Amino acid sequence: MKAKTPKRLTLALNHESDDALLVRTAWLYHVAGLTQEETAARLGLHRSRVNRLLSEARERGLVSVTIQHESARDNATEQMIVDAFGLDFCLSTPAIGFEPLDVTDAAAVRMQGLVARRAVGTAGANFLRGKLQDGPIKVGVSWGRTIEQVAQQLSGVRNPQAMFISLLGSLTRNSASNPFEVVQAFAARTGGEGHFLPVPFIADSEADRDVLLSQRSVAEAMALAHSADLFLISTGELAETSFLRTQDMLSSAELQTIRARGAVCDTLGRLFDANGREIRHPLSDRTLAVEPEGLRGRHVVLLAGGLEKVDAINGLLRAGLVNGLIVDGDTGLALVRRLKQANP
Question: Which of 71, 112, 222, 225 is deepest in the core (most CB within 10 A)?
Fold first, then answer.
């Protein structure tokens, strides 16, 4: 289903270069999911010109399965985020032009979230493709809809020496975002190996968690996960629309309790507040996943998209566990606005 055009003023393109217009047109059509008519209206162009621009983008190799993001990044946004959080790098896709949403409008949140995750997935696939061309590599992967999009968008690379390792246990219900399915998708796309933790993500009790972790096969899988060269992680926003909530891993009451303690995000079963401090909760004591503290100082890349995740991204970046960020343009701009408000 094609995404509806968000309500906003038509972009002023009088000063855009031909290449920039070419990239923006391809992005809106292929990644944002707009029709040619909607793309033309957004850019203030005739539909016939949009058609010609899309054809030229394909002929010039800008469009294959994904957009070549090196030609379509917001360098100013990236640099501000890098400087603010002390990151090694940030990749921000072009902004689509989404307006802030009422979080109670579930349908609109889902639509914008899907477009944002698709954008981040495309950028993440391009990033990972470059890493996979360098020979043997072990990639630790988290779960969720954004990481799932990276696997779906990854194409054009084969590396039988690549290993993809789940950083946490699996869900009890079938889902394309499940760690097991995500790892297998990466392996299938590249011809590499997939390794997963043979345990559930959440144990029934802390004692059960300890028993599971003591099993030799689990200990070996966990050690392999800790040895990864690159870690791809995601974060949840701790709202009714979050992954933990929609997968029924948290009840509404538990969610409210966690937020009352100041938590704004989760990653790998750990909760963090707006300043990046970990919030302890019984849920954390029952999760089976790589300890986030064990990732500090490693090559850890956060992939996150959607305006509803601004608080979550801000909180996790302040925790100091991440050294790289891949984010959609609208969320990147919203994060920069948040930083400017905090430091006028």
Answer: 112
